[in-house]
Structure formats: C-alpha cells, structure tokens
Write a structure and sequence with these properties.
Rossmann fold, single chain, 7-stranded mixed β-sheet, binds S-adenosylmethionine, alpha/beta, 7 helices
Amino acid sequence: MNLYEKYILPPILNCACGLPLLKSHRKDIVLRAKGSVLEIGIGSSLNTDFYDFDEITGITGLDPNKSLLKIAQYNNSNLPDKIHLTGGTSEYLPFPSNQFDSVVVTFSLCTIPQPDKAVKEIKRVLKLKGDLHFCEHGLSHAPKIKRLQRFVEPIWKPLAGGCHLSRDIFRLITDGGFQLFDHETIYATGVPKFVGHLYKGSAKKID
Ligand SMILES: C[S@@+](CC[C@H](N)C(=O)[O-])C[C@H]1O[C@@H](n2cnc3c(N)ncnc32)[C@H](O)[C@@H]1O
C-alpha cells in the first residue's frame, strides 16, 4: 500500500462513500441480510446503521486496508460484540466453505482487483441457501455515458484507490454462478451519471 492509500485515501473514501444521498440505496440492500453475515470490502463500515440486528447473529467485516479498518473500529465502537473486523482480500477469503447466511458487498466490486475470483470465493463461503446482497456502481448501458466512463477511468482509477467505472456488475455476479433476484439498475440522484450508475440487488447460488 502506498502513502496515498494509507493516509490520504481513507478519510476521502469515508466522506465520499458516506454521502447522505447514497444512504437509502445502502439501506435497501443491507436490510436484506440475515443470520451470519460477511461484509467484504467493509471499508470504514458505513453500512452498520442499516443492518437489522434482530435478524442477524453477527457480522464479519473484511478489508485489506488497515487504515480504513481503524476508522471502521471507531465507527462501530458502540457495537463491539456484533461486528468482528479482519484484514484480508476477497479473492482469498480466510473462511471455511458454507459458513455464512448472507454476504454483503457495497461499492467494492468496482475496486477489488480480481472481482471474478472474489465472486467465486463469495459463492464458496455462502451456505447452500445463502444470499449475496449488493449495491455497486458500474457500467452504464447508455452509449454516451459508457464512452465517458471509459474515457475517464484511467484518470479516475489511481485517484479513487483502484475503482473501475466500467464493470458490468450483473454480469460479474451471474458469470460467477449466481442467479439474480430483486435487482435493478438506477442512477443515484445528485451523483454524476458516469459514477452514479448503480447496480442493486440480491443473488442466489446456483449449482
Ligand atoms: C469505495 S470503498 C467502499 C467501502 C465500503 N464497502 C462502503 O460501502 O463504503 C472500496 C473498498 O474496497 C476495498 N478493497 C480493495 N481491494 C480489496 C480486495 N482485494 N478485497 C476486499 N476489499 C478490497 C478497499 O480497501 C475499500 O475499503
């Protein structure tokens, strides 16, 4: 991790990802989680407020960025028994197979370097009837926006910690062996369209 990623990016991500206009989108998805939950790329733990703690037994939050995990620890200081934070990458999840009832991922499949590998790992650690719940941003299907995304991406990516603008999130998830349900794409209000094209939904494992 370079100095930018260690010291400058974490507070920027905490503020940018914490924008109030994203809250309702996070809530829609995070409320769906049940049982034992794994949140990958948890960052500074901006989803904590949206979990229904009556429905879940605990949350394991994983992220490779130690500086973000420190902010997450601070953000969760009133919930020490509910959330367990751990370092690690989603491409190599340090958990046995068939362990979690729900996996949650928000605004991280854009950044994870090998997202196809991460989706396969998510499938492995989910129980047979477990669900993946996601709220991500990615490739627009409007030709003008798509062109802009591809033009801006090389400048955007290093500034935003490796975030891609042009990943097709539904495709990534279905190619990884999941069937989508309750899903939609939508532009987040108040966010430029090249970065605000959201993919929201849930997905079940298929054999
Ligand atoms: C834009 S932030 C989103 C954070 C958080 N999920 C949220 O919704 O606010 C992207 C996150 O992906 C994490 N990340 C990067 N590479 C990763 C990897 N290989 N596995 C898991 N998370 C990763 C980053 O450290 C960062 O926390």
